[in-house]
Structures are given as structure tokens and as C-alpha cells.
Amino acid sequence: ATMLASAVFGATAASALTVGFSQIGSESGWRAAETTVTKQEAERRGIDLKFADAQQKQENQIKALRSFIAQGVDAILLAPVVETGWESVLEEAKDAEIPVILLDRTVSASDDLYLTAVTSDLVHEGRVAGQWLVENVGDRACNIVELQGTTGSSPAIARKKGFEEAIAGHDNLKIIRSQTGDFTRTKGKEVMESFLKAENGGANICALYAHNDDMALGAIQAIKEAGLKPGEDILVVSIDAVPDIFKALDAGEANATVELTPNMAGPAFDALEAYLNDGVVPPKWIQTESKLYTQADDPMKVYEEKKNLGY
Ligand code: GYE
Predict the structure, then answer these.
(1) Which of 147, 196, 223, 235 could form a disulfide bond with 181, CB atoms 3.0-4.6 angstroms apart?
(2) What is the pLDDT of residues 38-52, one digit of tens each?
(3) Ligand 1 centroid – CA 274 distance (Å)
(4) How far apart are alpha carbons 68 and 51 in whole angstroms?
(5) CA dist 108 to 18, 120, 150, 152, 154, Å?
(6) Best of 22, 30, 83, 148 to mutate for ligand 1, by most ligand atoms within 8 A of CB?
(7) CB 15 within 8 A of CB 45
(8) pTM for the whole thing?
């Protein structure tokens, strides 16, 4: 009967889907855009999306997942705030035969506990950022300060690792300070202020590596308030490619960013519909692209394009 229904009604079969989405919160411009795009993609496909904002707390995400399971949703999208501690709730979803798709961050649990993960190569992003610095700093000694993402989150762990790999063997590049800015503008600014104070008003700092653009944008503000020129006195490299970083690139106040698409839901829903309607089992990892942008890439043009993509 199911086969007949999907054969007769085609795309209408998918319109009956109910999907729960446990989102982390709204810490960054990128995160807000991902939420917008997910809602748009659901609407476009006739998917009934149940949205839960966890306000950065894993316990809220676990509660949301249990509530989705109790409601008997057809599938769950999970953007996991941290990497560890998901086994029990993912097992509960598995026992209930509800497929879970991870969005933008990974978990340390066994991969048979979820259907697939739609993410970028988070280590590669860090490597691309580090390579940009290696290539643009040349032979001079360069002290780097690092603003890490949320402690225990897969992007904070992986972006640190990739960056360190890229600068390894270049002894003139050294990370002198590294602290979390929780992926927010406010904390990025605060922590950068403390770095500047501790490092001779910034005179000892050659470059900033921020795990996302929002923290970089907060730090740019701090650098300006300290009387230095971001992008010149202190090089700024970060990740996400949110619209505002293109304004900073255009103004010469940022130097490079690695793009992360906010459209994780498109590939996730494609995989889910193929799985539920046609039994197509997706690969465990659906990888999104990572592209480097610099001041040479017509930043204001990209800014305009970005504004139509959920930002
Ligand atoms: O880069 C950052 C966000 O999980 C990869 O989370 C994502 C990161 C993104 O808050 O801006």
C-alpha cells in the first residue's frame, strides 16, 4: 500500500513527513541563517518541522529529542552543541526506529546511532585558515592569538587541530594565546580585549585566528578601540563567510574567511526523503564545500549575494 501511495501521489508522500529539529541556539550569524534556511527548506517540501531552540545547553537538546521520540516524529535533525554524551538518547531514537541526521557538527558516538551527518570538513577549514597565514606572513616572526569556538564542540576541536597542522613546521608562526569566545561576537570582543591588554596593547600580536566570523567581528572592534588597524597591524582570519565579514574584508579590516554554507538542511532532507520513500541508504558523511575568500574576491558583491541565502 505504501508503494502504491508513493507511486500514485509522487512527491505528496513526502509532504506527510514530520521532522523534529533540535537547534543549538542563535550564537552566531551563521547559526541564525542555518535556522532560517532549514525552516524554508521544510516549508518548500511540505515537511512539518518541529523546531526546538536549546539555548546552548545539551540537556535541553536531550529533552527535545526525547519529546520528539515520544511524539513519534518521522525523523530528527540534531545540531549537537558538544561532541560527547549522546549515546543514550541516540539509542532511544534507534530503538524507536526514528532516523537521526546530524547537522553541521559531529558526535563521538558510534556512527550506527545516526543515519548520516551533513557537515563540512571541519579540520580542513582550520588547515585552509592556517595555510593562508603561512603563505601571507612570509618569513617574519608572527605571534598568533586564537579565539576558540564553544568548548567541547566538534568545530572548536577540529578547527584548532587543522590550524595547528597547517602552521606546524613553520617556526616563525606561534600561537601565544588561545581561549574560547563561545562563537559569539560579545565574547570574541571581550577575550580579544584581554589578549590586547596582556600583549603590550597588541604590539606583540601579529595575527588573530578566530574559529568563526562573529568572534572575529567582535575582535575587530576591540582592535580598533585599542587604536590599532585590524587587517594590517593584526591580520584577521576566520571561518563561516557571513555577510558582515565581507564588509570587513572590503574595508581592509579582515583578511580571509573560509565559507560554510548555512544550507545543511537541503542535503539532509534530500537524503531523508530518498531513505524514507525509496529505501536509499545515504553515506555516513555528506560533506559540504569549504571555499577561501580574501580581500581580492570582490567582497561587496559576495556580501550582496550572501544576503539572499538566509542571512
Ligand atoms: O561555524 C559557528 C556556529 O557548528 C560549524 O557553529 C558550526 C559552527 C559555525 O555557531 O558560527
Answers:
(1) 147
(2) 999 999 999 999 999
(3) 27
(4) 10
(5) 27, 16, 16, 11, 9
(6) 30
(7) yes
(8) 0.94
